[in-house]
Every structure is written in C-alpha cells, then in structure tokens.
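Predict the 3D structure for this chain.
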Amino acid sequence: MLRALSTAATGMEAQQSRIEIIANNLANVNTAGFKRSRAEFQDLLYQTMRPPGVAAAGGMVVPTGQQIGLGTRVVATARIHTEGDLRQTGVPLDIAIEGEGFLAVNLPSGELAYTRAGALKLDGNGRLVTADGFPLASAIVIPPDTTHIGISPDGTVSVQQPGQQQMTEVGRLTLVTFPNPAGLVARGRNLFQPTAVSGPPIEGQPGTAGLGTLAQGMLEMSNVKVVEEMVDLIIGQRAYDIDARVIRAADEMLQETARLR
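Done. Predicted structure below.
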C-alpha cells in the first residue's frame, strides 16, 4: 500500500507535466512559426519479487516472474516540427517557408539562432530584421527610396525604386536545415539554437538540397491543433484523477489496517 502511494504520486507528477506542456501549446496557438511539444513517458524501476525461469517444486521452471512497477516519469518533451497552416497577409515583408528550413538571425551576443517566424521588419538602417530587431544573417539591406519589395520563392530579394521599370536584386535569403531538427533547443522569441544532437546547420538556397521555398505575403502559423490538444488535456485530467483515486484508496486501506488492532 505504501508502494501504491509513491507509484500513484509519480503518475500525478507526470500528468501534471503533461498538462503544463499542453497549456504552453494552447497558449501559442496563434504564434507564427510555433512548433508544438509532446510529453513522452517512461516507466521507472521494477521491484523483482521472483524472476522468470527460476526452479519450482518438482523440478519445474516458473514460466513468468513477479515484478511490481514503481511508477512513471516524463523522459522527454519532443518538439514536433511539422509544417503549420499558411495564412495570407498581403504584407510584403511577411514570408512563409513552404517545406523544411529555418531563417538564420544574428543575436546581440554574436551567436546565430534560427526561426520559422517570417514576420520580418525593416530597422533604421534598412536591414531585414525579426520582430525583436535581430538582423537576418543574410545581411540584406533595402534602399530607403524603395517603392516595392519582391521576394521570390528561391529567396531572391528585389526592389523597385522611383523612375525604374525593372526590379533590382539586392540580395538573396538563404535557409538552414539540420539533420535532426528535434534536437534543437528552444530559446523563446520563436528562436531555436543547435545542440550536439541536432547536428550542424546546413545552409542553402531555397528550393535546393531539400530546402523549402519562400512565399511572400504569407505567414506560417502554429502547428498546434486545438481539438487534438483538448483531447490530450481531457486524457491527462482523467489520468491525474485516477492516480489521485489510487492514493485515496491506498490511504483508506492503511486506515483499515490500523484499525485491526
């Protein structure tokens, strides 16, 4: 019964972590480029009362053993990098990545970070930057007298200036992919950074080497599906409630034991 108390407690802690992950997913349902997370569970150690295959009476062998599990835990929060729905905005500096790939940005620390959020802006120097002001690693500068900006699917950025009929190319956006995107670590602000298990960044032109293409005037929305998250939330709530009932049942059994004397 004491074992049941601790085992059920691990289940409640695991389901609490699961619900916290679901809450974060739902909170970011409208965050551009957000990738949902999923809790992954693992059973804990087992107390072996009798191993399988031991000798029994009469020279027989026990075909199955006796093991009692000691609970569960959250072993990982897997990031799901499926593509979110695309929403048309009509804003020239909004770009969506159709397929795999990330935009590389320069952080104030000098490090590189990577994002799928394509709501780009212009800073005071005409550079393409994120909503937080981090410049793109592609280092593209838009002239101040630009009247029209065009971004092609292959990343070519062109501008039209007063008195010109033709578009002038000012640079090219590149995309970056990783051998294991699930190994990226989230830093907040729609940014990811590589780790040893994500593999090194592989940079290339959009539309080549398996990289996605760019869509101007569109944004990739979160890949969170509200209905799926609500179903997972109900399952987590029910599992938490059942674990709580196990604790109450074990407590009542202990009370009955204490009354025996």
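The chain has a mean pLDDT of 91.
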